Amino acid sequence: MVIAFTGDPFLAKEALLEEARVWGLARFTDPTPEALAEALSPGLFSGAGALLDLREVGEGEWKALKPLLERTPENVPVLLLDPKPTPARAAFYRARERRDFPTPKGKDLLRHLENRAKRLGFRLPAGVAQYLAGLEADLEALERELEKLALLTPPLTLEKVERVVALKPPVTGFDLVRAVLEGNAKEAFRRLKALREEGEEPLKVLGALSWQFALLARAHLLLRENPRPKEEDLPRLEAHPYAARRALELARSLEEAALREALDILIAAERRAKEGKDPWLALEGAVFALLPLTGRSATR
Question: Are residues 147 and 254 located together in one domain of the fold?
Answer without folding.
Answer: no
